[in-house]
Amino acid sequence: MTKPIKVHLCPAGPNPWKVVLLLEELGVPYEINSFPFQEVKSKPYTDINPNGRVPAIEDRNTGITLWETGAIILYLIEQYDITHKLSYPDIKQRHLTNQYLFFQVSGQGPYFGQAGWFNVLHSEKVQSAIDRYNSELKRVLGVLDTVLEGKEWLVGDKITYADLSFATWNDRIDSLILCAPEDKFKGFLNVQAWHERMISRPSWATCMDKRAQLMDEQGLLPNGMPKGVSNMEEYEAKMKADAEASK
Predict the structure, then answer these.
(1) Of 74, 140, 227, 229, which sits most exposed with the smallest number of CB within 10 A?
(2) Helix (H, G, I), strand (E, B) or coil at 197
(3) Which domain holds residue 102?
(4) pTM (2 decimals)?
(5) What one-character DSSP code corresponds to residue 34?
(6) What does 143-196 look like in DSSP terms, one character per residue?
(7) Does one domain contain both 99 and 73?
(8) Is 240 domain-assigned?
């Protein structure tokens, strides 16, 4: 019997849920170790991931511990997608799928994250940075919209791990660039239809229900900030004060 894979995460960020979504789709047992953001840069978590980022996984079936979502996703597909539910066995489609996964981890994630930082979390409004990363976010959407023209999925005729890897960041575009929810895919109809196909899947609802529960347990707002905190500077001050008070 397969032992549950332990997924270490802070619930607010989008990256951990890429991994949980994949596990749900594959039907692989897992258990979540959810902890507050202020613990991500300290032991015992940094013994698992010295980079101090989430997620990380521990697979007791193989003795493998991994961090970095791209590496985790490729591992889970190789180890557990033996029927190729979310992947392809042939060399061409396999490498095309990896191409889009790497576009997600090197393009979408960093640019979308910086857009969220400068629009929402940074204590000072730096308009040049806001303009740059909002523009890059839309450029990435434009690339995806072009690729998806006349297609339902990025590669071949079925959903793959590459498609799923984009869902969690795309879902929060409105909170990253502070637009109306109905406008987050404005001008990118192919991306919108693709995203709606993914979030209509049962795996998505399960992940978002788990995220909402864990966020509520930690008293977090949808943007990841604690209630009553509006930017990262205030959050860091609060974490410092809480640490002092606990001594």
Answers:
(1) 227
(2) helix
(3) 91-200
(4) 0.93
(5) E
(6) HHHHHTTT-SSSSTTS--HHHHHHHHHHHTHHHHHT--GGGTTTT-HHHHHHHH
(7) no
(8) no
